[in-house]
DNA sequence: CGGCAGGATTAGATCGTTCAAAGTTTCTGG
DNA sequence: CCAGAAACTTTGAACGATCTAATCCTGCCG
């Protein structure tokens, strides 16, 4: 095996000093054109790669971003995190960062892990998903001035940290408008119990659009836990009443899938639209609201690199989802 | 902010030398009981954490394992990788390793990434998922003696690298036996086109069990691409023939979900069993074969740590999946 | 009581990079 | 042609751990 290629090897070959090689890598503009070319040739010829550990030891920065991976929750929404992670890894890569995973059972353990990762690996930043009211994690990180971004708005107004989110209300509003445009008037909403930021947001888009169109939403909203069986039960129940809805907007694909089964047995056709555009939706032809996960991941990385390089970036990004029309609406 | 805690800080506080502290961490048995206790107290009191970068620079080992994250494929099987990753991260953590993600569009790019990761980050090992016939990646890694494990058997007999896999044949055999026990005789198999190692394996379990029970499998096997629509089409077709099957074993939950829809409209009830036990299966009450993903991930880590520490471990692990019975069989 | 084996501990060098500061060359204008 | 500035390059130290080799104990045997 060939001997290790270090910055000194490159320097010797290019007839310059170590520091000049380092400058070519980290501050190319201060090196004379011709010298730089010579060094770059040597780097290519030797296949030199800067040793990350040595660099990290000197600079205290690891070019590593940590993300928590959660066990797939019940329901069919697991693939959302999957796609987000993929996007994150890809964008981070392009920006010269890598993604490190960690797990945690609860908030306390997660905070312990932050401490570990920061102490041992000099982690540069964290990406948090699924923030909730009064999240202790963001407080801990903010207090120590650790750069981080959340995917998901902080639902407490006082939290001023950077975040990226998808505008759920805009998504359901778009769905509702589409249904109105295609002639529907009695449009129901199948969502989660009030109190979750995400769920309330998605409901709001439907409610405001309906109200703006001069329609009454009374009796058209159902709240239930997430799940296929739950969705089926609720829509079946709605359809059994007087003046049943002709269309239903759902807060998730799981609910929508259930609704679809209930709709199948209905007297009149019922349009169904889901949320998240999971693979199942694509498979069964369910129309759904698609979150721009790759874009969201990219913006997370943008925000982080901005923070890390001290560039001022707008720290709040709200992305608009897209409605994917298939057979069911 | 408090000054950084290094091994020297600990040494001073415990009234010993740096090396003794290092020994307490890396070779506790050579340190005298009482000294060790004193050092451990100092470590705890100061909240010392060994700097990974410095250790890595000296030892050339990063305690980092790389895993490729793939974009979610079509179909509902995305959560499989998700769960595997979660298990991997958790077990690796317990063994003192962390998981690093990378992406790649094709094999060449992936090999380029290996080079990068090894050169810059001193990666300790790789976990590959989804190997195929004549995989260039395993060859590249083996040639350079980089430790790695694949999740999935190599389907070329000549590849001798360590692997962990789930015995698909055992899974479908178990399903078939269960169906036989509950009185079924005409049991169909809905699978993928011949040629994929995984698919052929799953088919074999059904076929041998049927044959062993003295039953004829002629006309009971269907091959199709993965997908819900495909599953529905094939079972509908099977049910339309003379002597239709009373039960069907599927190579995936996607196919099973489709089959379930076809079965719903059938004259006689048809038992359906899927494969992978995805969250959708749980949601709709579909019986399915559950891969022990957490265990598989754990065994991957075991194999890798074994390789890294030079301990001889049996390098081929075949795990048996479990049949999860729900409403559909 | 001296010598010696062997374990426990220490001191110094080292990994590959970047920082700080000093050194050298090149350019500009009087 | 030279002083002074600007641009570029070099040198030595430092980051925080581990490795090697040397030193210090301690107990045991002759």
Task: Describe the secondary structure blueprint for this structure.
The structure is a homodimer of 329-residue chains.
Chain A: H1 7-14, H2 18-26, H3 33-46, H4 52-59, E1 64-68, H5 78-94, E2 98-102, H6 107-121, E3 125-129, H7 136-143, E4 148-151, E5 163-166, H8 168-181, E6 187-191, H9 197-212, E7 221-223, H10 228-239, E8 247-250, H11 253-264, E9 271-275, H12 279-284, E10 287-290, H13 293-308, E11 316-319, E12 322-324
Parallel strand pairs in A: 1-2, 1-3, 3-4, 4-5, 5-11, 6-7, 6-8, 8-9, 9-10
Antiparallel strand pairs in A: 10-12
Helix pairs in contact in A: 1-2, 1-3, 5-13, 6-7, 8-9, 10-11
The structure holds a DNA duplex (30 and 30 nucleotides).
Summarize this structure briefly.
The first copy, chain A, has helices at residues 7-14, 18-26, 33-46, 52-59, 78-94, 107-121, 136-143, 168-181, 197-212, 228-239, 253-264, 279-284, 293-308; strands spanning 64-68, 98-102, 125-129, 148-151, 163-166, 187-191, 221-223, 247-250, 271-275, 287-290, 316-319, 322-324. With 329 residues, chain A is an alpha/beta fold.
């Amino acid at each position: 095996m060939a001997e290790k290629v270090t910055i000194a090897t490159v320097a010797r070959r290019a007839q310059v000093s170590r520091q000049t090689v380092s400058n070519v890598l980290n501050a190319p503009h201060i090196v004379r054109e011709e010298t730089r070319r010579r060094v770059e040739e040597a780097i290519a010829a030797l296949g030199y790669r800067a040793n990350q550990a040595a660099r990290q030891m000197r600079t205290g920065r690891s070019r590593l971003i940590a993300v928590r991976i959660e066990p797939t929750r019940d329901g069919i929404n697991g693939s959302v995190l999957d796609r987000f992670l993929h996007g994150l890894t890809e964008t981070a890569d392009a920006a010269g960062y890598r993604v490190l995973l960690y797990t945690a059972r609860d908030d306390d353990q997660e905070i312990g892990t932050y401490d570990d990762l920061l102490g041992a690996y000099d982690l540069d930043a964290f990406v948090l998903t699924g923030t909730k009211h009064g999240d202790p994690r963001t407080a801990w990180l903010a207090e120590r001035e650790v750069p981080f971004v959340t995917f998901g708005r902080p639902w407490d107004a006082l939290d001023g940290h950077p975040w990226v989110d998808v505008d759920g209300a805009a998504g359901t509003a778009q769905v509702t408008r589409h249904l109105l445009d295609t002639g529907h008037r009695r449009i129901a909403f199948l969502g989660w119990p009030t109190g979750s930021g995400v769920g309330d947001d998605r409901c709001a888009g439907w409610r405001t659009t309906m109200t703006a169109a001069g329609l009454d939403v009374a009796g058209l909203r159902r709240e239930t836990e997430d799940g296929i069986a739950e969705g089926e039960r609720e829509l079946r129940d709605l359809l059994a009443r007087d003046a049943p809805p002709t269309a239903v907007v759902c807060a998730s694909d799981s609910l929508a899938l259930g609704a679809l089964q209930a709709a199948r047995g209905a007297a009149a056709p019922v349009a169904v639209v889901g949320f998240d555009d999971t693979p199942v939706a694509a498979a069964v032809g369910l129309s759904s609201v698609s979150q721009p996960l790759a874009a969201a991941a990219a913006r997370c990385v943008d925000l982080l690199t901005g923070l890390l390089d001290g560039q001022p970036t707008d720290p709040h990004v709200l992305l608009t989802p897209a409605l994917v029309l298939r057979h069911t609406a």
